[in-house]
Give the backbone structure.
Amino acid sequence: MPANPICTLIGAGPGLGRAIAERYAHGGFSVGLIARDARRLQEQASLIRARGQGAATASGDAGDAKSLRNAIANVESQLDGPTTVLIYNAVAFSPGTPLQLSPETIQSDYRINVTGALVAAQSVVPAMKQAGKGTILFTGGGLALHPNAQAASLSLGKSGIRCLAFLLSQELRGSGIRVATITISGYIQPGTHFDPLRIAEVFFQTAVDGKADVEIVYK
């Protein structure tokens, strides 16, 4: 069994993803980092290991179910244990209105924004059920509550992942697994109320506070 609980982070980018990874590492978690940029993942993992925490990396495409499943299995194997907290932070954004965007573009973005979150959840839920506990967190956005025609693809994606969080929470009620979405109603920018470090703290506290809220709106 792993010495520390494991946080598997999908969408470990340089902004919010990095802040979340560092917050969980600081909180005593080993961290599994998944994204497409293998070099950047290694840099993040090195910083976490330098602080004495476990870290594993796997290159994976959130829009490709097989690639994503393999990446999750890879980091869990490296960290020698199942995921305790899953965070789905991957996102795709193609600017444009519904009539401007091709169906192929919307479908491609949706696979990353929503379907990948489902694939990730399906990958970790069996072990969480066996353990009788676990947390699944999705990065949501204000476009789920206030869609914008100029950001049609992302509006659909954030609406979809919000809905998915509610559906999974209903399905997993009584299992000991908590599902929640952090709806970020603003532009993430360092030095503001929407600083990645502030939002990362919300992700961490949501996983450890034991509450049953399905949606946490950060505004």
